[in-house]
From TrEMBL:
Pathway: Amino-acid biosynthesis; L-arginine biosynthesis; N(2)-acetyl-L-ornithine from L-glutamate: step 4/4. The keyword ATP-binding does not apply. Pfam families: Aminotran_3. It comes from the Bacteria. It comes from Bradyrhizobium niftali. The modification N6-(pyridoxal phosphate)lysine is found at residue 248. Belongs to the class-III pyridoxal-phosphate-dependent aminotransferase family. ArgD subfamily. The gene is argD. Keywords: Amino-acid biosynthesis, Aminotransferase, Arginine biosynthesis, Cytoplasm, Pyridoxal phosphate, Transferase. This is Acetylornithine aminotransferase. One of its GO terms (biological process) is L-arginine biosynthetic process. NCBIfam families: argD, PRK01278.1, PRK03715.1. It is an enzyme of class 2 (transferase). It catalyses: N(2)-acetyl-L-ornithine + 2-oxoglutarate = N-acetyl-L-glutamate 5-semialdehyde + L-glutamate.
Length: 398
């Protein structure tokens, strides 16, 4: 399809999109080419942690672009060294590999675990992941994922992934054998509808993997960089994994991801891992700017407080309309609608100028900027409440 302004058919058609074309963003708001304003509670699926086009990121991009674009990953560059050191200083890890996407970081984590197995566990290569998990769209990360829609796609899948049940430690233990090298999970499963692993389960998982000499891999693509009120989600459980992946929020809107590992787990040898744009100075300059903002204690405290406010307001909406519970942590939350009406609500909210997300047909997911204001939360809640009232959702709930 082509309009007088936009040739839609030139872009590969890989998902359903509304016809609005966005041209500008600031904070929690986007504007399309007709100047209509939208309140954004999706933020690129938790990507724009500081909102749209924040000055800190714009300034970092402009400054670094005038200094150095890339010298090639065959050489060190100052910005990537600084960001790697900052991440190590603020985490439980010793080394960092930078990537361009969460899927690439997770692919690297899978490769690193298999390398560890070949060196230290007699060639063990199997990784236990979880039903409902989502780790990316490469062949290996799709195979690691527990998303039902992926099962018939792009066969044959990459072998070596067994699926346990989230929050069921016995289901994990049952799958461990001599070929097992690692356990990999999202601490909150985002794509399947914001289903959190309990802190106790994460603690049990750490103890189990240590008892069997396995690596524990946390996919913090969506939960990392302050999204749940801690810089990294593993801090809530008082444990530390051996490997962690970051994406989305670490770039604040630009393509940046990271694979972090302890010294014990970081066993890549020269030639095992690489990439043309890995550690790109411009992207790493943005990462430094994001970490500087998000890493401030007052910032993380505000995320926790704002998350509690959003959770409370969603619970009130649920009570008024006879809906289900609110799941998640910090500013990664979901509302259980108890009915398959989520896509319709998203469409109506879009028309009303509010961007929401439906990861499942009965679930709304909320991923606003980490600096979202109380007034913006109230604006979104008013819109959602009006849509539910108009739809008579409460009367249709059995």
């Amino acid at each position: 399809m082509t309009t007088a302004t936009h040739p839609y058919d030139a872009l590969m058609d890989i998902t359903a999109r509304p016809k609005a074309v966005f041209v500008r963003g600031a904070g929690s708001y986007l504007w399309d080419d007709s100047r209509k304003r939208y309140l954004d509670f999706v933020q690129g699926w938790a990507v724009n942690c500081l909102g749209h086009s924040p000055p800190a990121i714009a300034d970092a991009l402009a400054t670094q672009a005038k200094r150095l674009l890339t010298p090639s990953p065959a050489f060190y560059n100052e910005t990537s060294l600084k960001l790697a050191q900052a991440l190590v200083a603020n985490s439980a890890f010793d080394q960092v590999f930078f990537a361009n996407s969460g899927a690439e970081a997770n692919e690297g984590a899978i490769k690193l675990a298999r390398k560890y197995g070949s060196l230290h566990k007699g060639g063990a290569f199997e990784i236990i992941s979880f039903e409902g998990g989502f780790h990316g769209r490469t062949l290996a990360t799709m195979s690691a994922s527990g998303k039902k829609a992926f099962e018939p796609l792009f066969e044959p899948k990459v072998a070596g992934f067994k699926k346990a049940k989230l929050n069921d430690i016995a289901s994990v233990e049952k799958l461990i054998n001599d070929n097992t090298v690692a356990v990999m999970l999202e601490p909150i499963q985002g794509e399947s509808g914001v289903w959190p692993a309990t802190d106790r389960f994460l603690q049990e998982l750490r103890a189990l993997t240590e008892a069997h000499g396995l690596l524990l891999i946390f996919d913090e693509i969506q939960t990392g960089m302050g999204r749940t009120g801690k810089l990294f989600h593993y801090e809530h459980a008082g444990i530390a994994p051996d490997i962690m992946t970051l994406g989305k929020g670490i770039g604040g809107g630009v393509p940046l991801a990271a694979l972090l590992a302890t010294e014990r787990a970081a066993c890549f040898e020269h030639g095992d891992q690489g990439g043309t744009f890995n550690g790109n100075p411009i992207m790493c300059a943005v990462g430094l700017a994001v970490l500087d903002e998000v890493g401030k204690p007052d910032f993380l405290k505000a995320v926790t407080e704002t998350g509690l406010l959003l959770e409370s307001e969603l619970q009130k909406v649920s009570a008024r309309h006879g809906l289900g519970g609110v799941r998640g942590r910090g500013l990664l939350l979901a509302l259980d609608l108890k009915l398959p009406i989520a896509p319709g609500i998203v469409a109506q909210a879009f028309e009303a100028g509010v961007l929401l997300n439906a990861p499942q047909v009965d679930t709304l997911r909320f991923m606003p900027a980490l600096n979202v204001t109380r007034a913006e939360i109230a604006e979104m809640i008013d819109c959602l409440d009006a849509i539910l009232t108009k739809a008579g959702a409460a009367r249709r709930v059995a």
